[in-house]
Write a structure and sequence with these properties.
The complex is a heterodimer of chains A (about 675) and B (about 150).
Chain A: E1 4-9, H1 21-29, E2 34-40, H2 46-58, E3 63-68, H3 71-84, E4 92-96, H4 98-102, H5 109-127, E5 135-138, E6 142-146, H6 150-161, E7 165-169, E8 184-185, E9 190-191, H7 192-205, E10 209-212, E11 215-223, E12 226-233, H8 248-252, E13 258-259, E14 268-269, E15 272-273, E16 285-286, H9 292-296, H10 301-305, E17 318-324, E18 326-329, E19 333-335, E20 352-354, H11 355-362, E21 383-390, H12 406-420, E22 425-430, H13 440-449, E23 454-457, E24 460-466, E25 469-476, E26 482-488, E27 490-495, E28 497-499, H14 503-510, E29 537-539, H15 549-566, E30 571-574, E31 579-581, H16 597-601, E32 607-613, E33 619-626, H17 636-640, E34 646-648, H18 653-664
Chain B: E1 8-13, H1 17-26, E2 35-40, H2 49-56, E3 61-66, H3 77-95, E4 102-106, H4 112-129, H5 133-149
Parallel strand pairs in B: 1-2, 1-3, 3-4
Classes of the chains: A alpha/beta (about 675), B alpha/beta (about 150).
Chain lengths: ~675, ~150
């Protein structure tokens, strides 16, 4: 006979403020089969867990219900406690009284009644639980890093330095990401490329890192420790092994009028190109969309001039299939572009640019070799206006969040401008200055006090052109909302940081959650900022939300440690909550009739065929069999099975039915 | 019928809606306490016969909720659930089960506020509809009759 122990947690006051925990414990204690019932302030604490362990021994419990927070929070804690108390961990269930009851309802009898019902349903469920043994699965000790910006670079290097193999996939022709585009970095004003490029080279030369640039993720299957990843290596149209990277082809290419992505459209590039001089790998690719040969069928100048005959016009895309143990997603961010700001005339007036374009102007390797010049006429702007929060923190524009980096880089831009154009005037329109970070506020003060940047607290309503000048109309809210009009030569918009293009498709391939802005979702906002809801997939950098470089690097190292911890063992244990097809003695063998409809719905190809044979090898019956190593326990086959021959451990038909009955019926 | 409080059971998947409902709690958004949640690994696991069992056992309304299309933790479970739902709905409607008593929705792990909204909207609708006695009577009667015939 079942002997169930029920442990009701107050969670400090989180539960007990609205639920009468004493009454819950008392009422449940009167139920049939409940051998022990108690309440305690913090069940997850050491003394709380001891209560459970002692009660298991003392009352010889056959099942435990911990009525506390969400099982997504503490199920592992209490299952471990049960195991330590000598009870199979899978005979422990949690009743979610906090997230699903005390936090969402007012304090009254109904809330306590609901709490009792929730606990009751779990008591009924746990009676039907069976003792299960964890499943061991092997771990492939190779990590996949998706995205080769500073986040990916840091993660890859950290994992590789732990002695594990890393595969890095970057969709553009070079690694480096947005950081390689930056001029100087706040708050130290050290040159971005100077600190980044050694890391890029390290990635390329590291014996444990395999780098695939100009490549994208085609599909991801499998599960933690055992992912099967298909990578599409886009055709670079040249043989990388022969190419020496001399760059002769890039100088001779007749097509030279393609907006340069690396220069944010501030410069032009040929159809065969190396994205920037320090690119890793330093080999060109042919942009087939713009190449004259692919458009018109003739040209081939690059092939003629190539000294090593490395050009391969007929090179196909290559699909690689890799076995991967863990994945770090570090796909970074984009910034909001062009037509998003019609009121600011972005896209209409050439001298209104975005923050990333200003980075390229200020960069020594940029289109103007570091001189701040107006895109329209190449003149030095005498008056420059920076607009912070262009798009960010603007629910009307659909972006309610703060992009975090703009306050700091706007201060940096204003400073860089003043350092290059001493007699120029820099104005910044801002909503608030958000400069939390080590030496960040001091940096902004320096811009205001030492470099005399004119900070105006207010929004800009409109920008229009008059006599070749840009008229910026705004308001100064610190002067009683007085209208401000600045005649500017150039305007820089600190546009919002948004999710990288293709983030949604990638999230769907990886089966990780993402928010309404398409940023990847972490498993817990505070305590699991690096993990995703999918085991074995971790996040690094601005693919989660806009972040500055120090935060990105910290998180990337955090993700790397998670991967290293996973790879520290050759096997990992997995929850045995998998499906099973019933078996019985001859002549039935199983109620399964062998229709194999389950096979067609299983997303993991976990359903196999098993033959029952006579002694002379004649097949009597063929039935379905679950491969426990592959089954992930979704239960789609269970609901589909016409003869009810498949059941799911932990969510069996009997268990869920018992839950339904308990929830709805009076006791 | 003004003080009628419907009994609502929610069948939700672990990865999206259960987590979303957890977020509702973490965000301290209040909703009607009529709803009680049953956790499934995936909406694909939900056998729709259970919905009928719930009605037979006294439920006045049911919510089925899982991951948005393409977001399923198990790739395709929610698509199977949706297909099954389309079939089930037609059949039940034909048999005279009031389909307004079932809410089928997608609530992601990031949509705590949406979960509260789904619950409140459903509960408000069910309050107006009143208790679902017709189905319970039908089931109980048929059992009684069967017993009698035996």
């Amino acid at each position: 006979m079942a002997r169930i122990g029920v442990f009701v947690c107050h969670c400090g006051e989180n539960i007990s403020a609205t639920v009468d925990c004493g009454k819950v414990a008392e009422t449940i204690g009167k139920l049939k089969h409940v051998a022990y019932s108690t309440d305690y302030k913090y069940m997850c604490s050491d003394p709380g867990q001891t209560i459970i362990k002692d009660a298991i021994k003392e009352h010889n419990l056959t099942g435990v219900v911990v009525s506390a927070c969400s099982p997504r929070m503490h199920e592992p804690t209490f299952r471990k406690a049960c195991a330590e108390g000598g009870l199979n961990p899978f005979l422990c269930e949690m009743a979610n009284l906090r997230e699903h009851c005390s936090w969402v309802h007012e304090k009254n009898d109904l809330t306590t009644e609901k709490a009792i019902d929730i606990v009751r349903s779990q008591v009924e469920k746990v009676k039907l639980n069976s003792a299960l043994q964890p499943i061991k699965v092997p771990v492939t000790r190779t990590a996949l890093v998706i995205g080769g910006g500073i986040a990916g670079i840091q993660s890859a290097l950290d994992i590789a330095n732990c002695g594990h193999k890393v595969v890095m996939v970057e969709r553009s022709p070079s690694i480096g990401g947005h950081m390689s585009q930056l001029s100087e970095t706040f708050p130290t004003l050290d040159c971005s490329q100077c600190i980044l490029t050694p890391r890029m080279v390290e990635v390329a030369q590291h014996p444990n890192i395999t780098l695939y640039t100009y490549a994208e993720i085609e599909s991801v299957e499998g599960f933690i420790g055992n992912f099967k990843v298909k990578i599409r290596k886009k055709a670079k149209s040249l043989d990388e092994k022969i190419c020496t990277g001399c760059g002769l082809c890039t100088t001779k290419c007749p097509q030279k009028k393609i907006p340069n992505e690396f220069e944010q459209g501030m410069g032009m590039r040929p159809a065969i190109y190396i994205p920037f001089p320090q690119a890793v790998p330093n080999r060109p690719v042919i942009d087939r969309e713009h190449c004259t040969y692919y458009i018109k069928g003739k040209c081939k100048v690059c092939e003629i001039v190539c000294p090593t005959k490395a050009i391969r016009f007929d090179q196909p895309d290559e699909i690689l299939e890799l076995e991967i143990g863990a994945i770090v997603v570090s796909t970074g961010f984009d910034i909001k572009h062009a037509d998003f700001f019609p009121e600011y005339g972005y896209g209409k007036y050439k001298d209104i640019i975005d923050g990333l374009q200003f980075e390229r102007l200020a960069s020594a390797s940029g289109p103007t070799t570091g001189a701040i010049l107006r895109p329209s006429d190449g003149q030095v702007p005498k008056n420059i206006v920076f607009i912070a929060c262009a798009g960010s923190r603007d629910p009307a524009k659909g972006i309610a969040y703060c992009s975090k980096i703009c306050c700091m880089y706007t201060a940096k831009h204003a400073m860089l401008y003043k350092h290059k154009v001493h007699e120029g005037k820099a104005h910044v329109f801002y909503m608030d200055i958000r400069s939390g970070g080590k030496n960040y506020d001091e940096f902004v003060r320096r811009a205001i006090e030492e470099d005399h940047v004119n900070y105006i607290r207010g929004r800009v309503s409109t920008i229009y052109e008059r006599d070749g000048k840009l008229i910026v109309k705004g308001v100064d809210t610190l002067l009683g909302a007085q209208p401000v009009e600045i005649v500017a030569d150039m305007v820089v918009l600190a546009t919002a940081g948004i999710a990288s293009s293709g983030a949604e498709e990638l999230a769907q391939k990886l089966h990780v959650s993402y928010d309404s802005h398409k940023f990847f979702a972490e498993a817990h906002p505070k305590l699991k900022p690096v993990e995703t809801n999918t085991a074995g997939i971790f996040l690094a950098g601005a693919c989660q939300n806009p972040k500055d470089i120090p935060d990105t690097v910290s998180q990337a190292s955090g993700a790397a440690v998670k991967v290293a911890a996973l790879f520290s063992q050759s096997e990992l244990t997995r929850e045995p909550l998998v499906a099973a097809v019933n078996r019985s003695g001859p002549p039935m063998y199983s109620t399964c009739v062998g229709c194999f409809l389950c096979q067609s719905v299983c997303p993991y190809q976990a359903i196999e065929r098993e033959d029952f044979k006579t002694r002379d090898g004649k097949i009597i019956k063929t039935v379905a069999k679950i491969n426990e190593g592959l089954c992930q326990g979704c239960g789609t086959c269970v609901a589909l099975c016409r003869s009810k021959s498949i059941d799911l451990q932990g969510y069996s038909n009997n268990q869920v039915y018992a839950e339904v009955v308990a929830l709805l019926n009076e006791y | 019928m003004s003080d009628f409080e419907p009994k609502v059971v929610a069948f939700v998947c672990n990865w999206c809606t259960y987590a979303g409902a957890d977020l509702t709690g973490t965000s301290r958004i209040k909703y009607a306490s009529n709803v009680k949640i049953i956790r499934f690994p995936c909406t694909g696991r939900i056998d729709f016969m259970l919905l009928l069992k719930a009605f037979a056992n006294g439920a006045d309304g049911i919510i089925v909720s899982g991951c948005h299309p393409n977001d399923c933790h198990y790739t395709s479970g929610n698509f199977h659930a949706k297909r099954r739902w389309i079939m089930f709905k037609e059949l039940m409607d034909f048999m005279g089960v009031d389909m307004n008593r079932i809410t089928f929705s997608w609530v992601s792990a990031a949509e705590g506020a949406k979960w509260a909204d789904v619950v409140n909207t459903t509960v408000t609708r069910l309050r107006e509809m009143g208790p679902y006695v017709s189905y319970r009577d039908l089931v109980n009667k048929s059992v009684e009759e069967e017993v009698k015939n035996e």
